[in-house]
């Protein structure tokens, strides 16, 4: 009987095993067990939870694939110490990836408790939307989409400009206006076209976005921005992607809604925290709000504050502040105090008095 010899690297690292064969077996067992549970949950009408479980399996499989690819790279590192370090980093990535999969599943399950267990298949019919952004009949006062509107924002590390272009994109028969969103944070930048729909009832829909992330690299000659990612891009009706609600016509405290849904790619959601925010009336929401900004824009105690989050990044959320007639004027990340505030606009007299960051 012939003895089969494993390659040296396979012997050093437990054959295909560190995360090869063993990982495949684990995924197969998990898929069988969880798949049975998913089918049972679906029969009970728990479609949201079933989706969360299925996405967990997809995440687990993606981690497996990424780790196996990383190990393939390690196999081709000649230096023993560098190769050992490569394997160690691949193992750390596996542990981190699996942990994130579990956290994402828990976050998606929590979102299910907020939005319900029904299938997420929102109506997206052309007759429900306005099609002339030069003459909107029922514009949302907290999310003005008039052609030519321009906002500028600044944070400690980046600058951001947003403009409503005189362009539209027809998506599934719905006329969506194009919003150019440019973010600069050297050596990285982001150039995004957002597509927003204005419903006749006043809701603003998120029809999709085309994201282009650029980065410059030291040592390049010439040093020109390179396209490094289009992650986050989605479009209603493409590859199962669904539109979402960006801002409600009649927001109320506790309302939670999906802003987009592209499985594992774009899953933002928001919860309304206040519709009567003003300086001093809700101290917990004053945290990190720049001095003078709330006094200028929310003195009538009619600003809306939302908590925006995504199950894809379970530990990250931000509060967004909206003023009537002006729209978004502040984003705050409470975990680190990062603030992105409005510094200019071209359609509201209050912008001439905005405090500097």
Topology:
Elements: H1 8-12, H2 21-43, H3 47-75, H4 80-115, E1 150-154, E2 159-171, E3 174-185, E4 188-198, E5 204-215, E6 226-229, E7 234-235, E8 242-247, E9 256-258, E10 260-261, E11 269-277, H5 283-286, H6 293-297, E12 303-309, E13 317-323, E14 327-333, E15 338-345
Antiparallel strand pairs: 1-2, 1-15, 2-3, 3-4, 4-5, 5-6, 5-7, 5-8, 8-10, 9-11, 11-12, 12-13, 13-14, 14-15
Helix pairs in contact: 2-3, 3-4
Number of DSSP E strands: 15
- Which segments are poorly predicted (pLDDT under 50) over 5 or more consecutive residues? 1-22
Helix-strand sequence: HHHHEEEEEEEEEEEHHEEEE
Please give the alpha-carbon distance between the first and last residues. 77 Å
Mean pLDDT: 90
Structural class: alpha+beta
Number of helices: 6
Q: Percent of residues in helical segments?
A: 25-40%
Radius of gyration from CA coordinates: 24 Å
**General form:** globular
% residues in beta strands: 25-35%
Largest sheet: 15 strands, antiparallel
